[in-house]
Design brief:
heterodimer; A: 112 residues; mainly beta; 5-stranded antiparallel beta sheet; B: 115 residues; 7-stranded mixed beta sheet
Chain lengths: 112, 115
């Protein structure tokens, strides 16, 4: 059973704060690490697909890093806005199949 | 932007009845998936489908479940003889290919409530 964990489970920050969360995943049989942003009552929205050790990706004020040797990825949000409030999911894709194994998510709430 | 659509958004069914959840994947995508999330738990993989057959399935996807692509657009998940523990949010996803750096694109989900 693949174990993908995210921390913290939830996070309350003030508007303008920068924040980061962690996703840990198996360091063997790695193919890709996906990050999704999921607002209530909507579909998960793809943020990044990361495949190379040391990868850094950026989309607006959101960025992510990847360490496949130690099995973790960080997601950073610079200057959080209330509209960044959502659950952020990471998902591990191993090299033996095409399913995604999801972490439990980090629920971010940004107060105005 | 093309999107994955799922119907219905909410389905309420008596235990023991059959349900069919419907999905229309993005038109040029080749791989199709079903996931579910039981309230308070992680999103779990159920099954992937390619070239009109199941390519991978989880332990959850037992004989009670089946998938079908009856025409060129719809992708369905059938649950025979539903149980209380089948209550969950069911998500359909599609992807252009199996490998590479493309994400899976998800629908809004169908909330299934078994009474």
């Amino acid at each position: 059973i693949l174990n993908v964990e995210q921390s913290p489970q939830s996070l309350h920050v003030q508007e303008g704060d920068s924040t980061n969360f962690t996703c840990s995943f198996p360091s063997s049989n790695f193919y890709a690490l996906h990050w999704y942003r999921w607002e209530t009552a909507k579909s998960p929205e793809a943020l990044f697909v990361m495949t190379l050790n040391g990868d850094e990706k950026k989309k607006g004020q959101i960025s992510a890093t990847l360490n496949t040797k130690e099995g973790y990825s960080y997601l950073y949000i610079k200057g959080s806005q209330p509209e960044d409030s959502a659950t952020y999911l990471c998902a591990f894709h191993n090299n033996a199949g095409n399913m995604l194994t999801f972490g439990g998510g980090t629920r971010l709430m940004v107060k105005p | 932007e093309p999107e994955v659509t799922q119907t219905p958004s909410h389905q309420v069914t008596q235990m023991g009845q059959e349900v069919i959840l419907r999905c229309v994947p993005i038109s040029n995508h080749l791989y199709f998936y079903w996931y579910r999330q039981i309230l308070g738990q992680k999103v779990e993989f159920l099954v992937s489908f390619y070239n009109n057959e199941i390519s991978e399935k989880s332990e959850i996807f037992d004989d009670q479940f089946s998938v079908e692509r009856p025409d060129g657009s719809n992708f369905t998940l059938k649950i025979r003889s539903t149980k209380l523990e089948d209550s969950a949010m069911y998500f359909c996803a599609s992807r252009t290919d199996r490998w590479g750096n493309q994400p899976q694109h998800f629908g809004d989900g169908t909330r299934l409530s078994i009474l």
